[in-house]
Design a protein that fits this description.
α5 links the parallel β1 and β2. This protein is of the alpha+beta class. It is globular, with a radius of gyration of 28 Å. The chain has six helices and four strands; from the N terminus they run ααααβαβαββ.
Length: about 220
Amino acid sequence: PAALPFHHEQPTPSDHPTQEAPKSTTTPNKSPEHPGDLELSPALLSAFQEDLAARKIRLRFFSGPWSSLADVLFPPPSSDDADGDGDERRREYDVVLSSETVYSLSTLPSLVDILHVCCTASASASAQHQHQHQHQHQHQQRAQGEVAQASPPQKTDTLCLVAAKVLYFGVGGGVHSFINAVQSSRKASGGYAHVVRELNVGVGRAVLQTGWSSTSSA
């Protein structure tokens, strides 16, 4: 047949020795969508600490009840900071993250209180800094003979995310209990919490975005 010569010209597996593909020496990228383990090797920890130092990031760790955390995070102004500006700067939080902290019904009120303080203190500090910046800008305009114009206020909100199981069996806490605690808190009024991500595989989990209106009391 016409295809016979072409067939005979094709190499057989024995014509060439088998060669194994080179093995990769790097760890394949794992998707954050799938659970897995991260090995905290000495090299990784050292690189992490060096990166923190290079970016001027400082970590602080605290232990104890939620009710005592506010006194640590928001100490009264010191004598070296009479104007309070430095203390207010320490009160700014762009992001607040909390995970596996809503399992106990008895500690929910204290947890809601500290989340409320972190969010509303940041809003207060941002408003004060914005006012100071606007005042300095108007003063410069007057010095240059220009007509000082007030800039429209810009609202900066703290992103507060809480990750939790839908229900913690045996202890009573869970997503719905936390939402009720936020919405019904008398001390931290004006609160809201809604689900932004939900996982229904296995034990139900959810991520909630939590916040307070600007009219709520700190």
